[in-house]
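Follow-up to my post from last week.
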Amino acid sequence: MTNLDHTTRRTFLSLTGGAATLVIVRPVDATTAMLSAAIRNVVGEANVRTGKVKLDIPPLVENGNTVPMTVSVTSPMTAGEYVKSIHVFNEKNPQPNVGNFYLGPRAGRAQISTRIRLADSQKVTAIARLSDDTFWSATADVVVTLAACTEEAI
Amino acid sequence: MPSALINVPKKAKRGDIIEIKTLMSHIMETGYRHTASGDVVPRDIITSFTCRFNGTEVFRADLFPAIAANPFITFFTTVTESGKFEFEWIGDKGFSETAQASITVE
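User reply:
Got it. Predicted complex:
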């Protein structure tokens, strides 16, 4: 009798556990695929390395509707060596792109700031394209208490 | 009524790197929200921002719905001569706004 009880409890737990994983994993996979597709769109077949890029974004934000963000890239910004563009992506918004920013050697300093929307706690990635067509990236985790895009319009 | 806020230093020394701050009032409707009756609120965003100095493009950005309402963008540029910055925002539903700022370089 006790044996039977244990079996049913275990079966129940494994079943529900399995179902929960299925439900949760699917959409995450879908957005991760969208994110990598969006990144491939920009970098093509090139290798993206970590480094040179600094992504300043608060690790914990109360309001996902307006999150301040600064991206800076280590570069001398001379005619021979400069940052061509900075691309920002997110993981879980309905759309993976956040913004593309095009600079040139005369920018003097490879740094941009803006305010973004985050629909959920997620990773934000910034990728910089340098004048030698190499790609560098930085990623930050952001926890969002009040998500953007979810409230109803009036 | 759209309105722009531009922050450009009035004066700079030749070769200085200056910071430019821009803000354009705009709802930046994402196109992912629904009304109480379930209809999708159509997308209405600024899609492109450009800054030119004396006619030459110095900075450009493509914006997506993930940019917060009233897009605030700051960037840097090197000034070599006196002149005029022209800013242009283009978006959905025929949105098109411009603004200008002059700088004296000594």
